[in-house]
Inverse folding.
């Protein structure tokens, strides 16, 4: 009897929670990388776009950076499943399980998938003092500087880590990787000349390329981009790296056990945010492509992540690029 009452009370409180959600407190979107970087950029634009469809709720960004994005992901995996702590993450949700041994959470069972956000290309960029204005000259410079080249990234398991490892593997040159808590601080050091090269999302590199603060050598997509600042960049494939293709994507997640009504509210708000013309304009200006309805469905996104795990796992293993 006592147990039945407890179950009934839990159900009532769950309905009450979903009814009043999200009025109790601000919603926090955890970004597992440093502020000012490419993932942070997407999260801040999304937080703004989510406000209206969530009835004017306050949506804040919490940067829980480090360990290639696994600290922030772990924070959300262990957070209260009440809809007030969400995770915005990228392709690492699919590559971390293979790329990093011993991650302290399970990407398939510790989260509720709320939907996909966008696809984002990456770019290969270099410090401004590099004596190479195009990919061909960069190849010559790399050949002449083997053993001395530093490549920045956002830590083991991050997108820049994956892209950098695939790049080294494709050109058969080892570089010294320098990990940061995100590619925002790495970008500062690249511009300052402390590191030589980096592979990073266009949501971070577009304005620096436009402002001629860094050299831009290529995009990592199979096709050239249409974004004005990036449209003249060759692909790595046409630069001679056969089959090279990395596209980053972002998704939104909640801790496992978040009530279904709250998940539904969040997915509806995400769909509305992804149709917000202001959000679309900001993202397109940074080379990102905002996804549309079917891909925003939670089940569809979960299927997509599983397919990405299946796609990347053999590539990472064959390249021998996974790390502890
Ligand atoms: N671009 C980073 C990465 O390589 C993440 C970031 O700083 O947003 O995964």
């Amino acid at each position: 009897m006592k147990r039945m009452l407890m179950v009934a009370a839990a159900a009532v409180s769950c309905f009450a929670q979903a009814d009043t959600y999200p009025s109790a407190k601000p919603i926090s979107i955890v970004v597992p990388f440093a502020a000012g970087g490419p993932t942070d950029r997407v999260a801040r634009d999304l937080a703004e776009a989510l406000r209206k469809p969530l009835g004017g709720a306050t949506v804040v960004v919490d940067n829980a950076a480090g360990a290639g994005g696994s600290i922030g992901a772990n924070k959300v995996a262990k957070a209260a499943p009440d809809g007030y702590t969400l995770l915005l993450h990228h392709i690492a949700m699919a590559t971390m399980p293979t790329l990093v041994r011993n991650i302290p959470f399970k990407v398939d069972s510790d989260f509720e998938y709320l939907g996909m956000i966008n696809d984002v290309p990456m770019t290969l960029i270099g410090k401004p003092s590099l004596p190479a204005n195009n990919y061909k000259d960069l190849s010559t410079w790399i050949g002449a500087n083997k053993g001395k080249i530093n490549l920045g990234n956002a830590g083991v398991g991050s997108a820049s880590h994956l892209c950098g490892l695939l790049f080294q593997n494709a050109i058969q040159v080892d570089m010294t990787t320098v990990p940061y808590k995100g590619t925002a601080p790495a970008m500062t050091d690249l511009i300052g000349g402390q590191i030589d090269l980096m592979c990073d999302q266009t949501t971070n590199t577009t304005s620096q390329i436009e402002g001629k603060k860094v050299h831009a050598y290529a995009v990592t997509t199979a096709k050239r981009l249409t974004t004005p600042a990036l449209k003249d960049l060759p692909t790595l494939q046409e630069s001679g790296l056969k089959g090279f293709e990395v596209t980053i994507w972002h998704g939104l997640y909640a801790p496992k056990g978040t009530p279904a009504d709250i998940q539904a509210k969040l997915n509806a708000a995400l769909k509305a945010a992804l149709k917000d013309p202001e959000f679309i304009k900001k993202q397109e200006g940074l080379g990102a492509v905002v996804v549309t309805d079917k891909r925003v469905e939670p089940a569809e996104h979960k299927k997509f992540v599983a397919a990405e795990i299946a796609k990347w796992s053999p590539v990472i293993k064959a390249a021998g690029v996974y790390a502890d």
Summary: Residues 33-34, 37-40, 153-154, 158-160, 182-184, 200-201 surround aspartic acid (CB under 6 Å). Residues 41 and 203 are 7 Å apart (CA to CA).
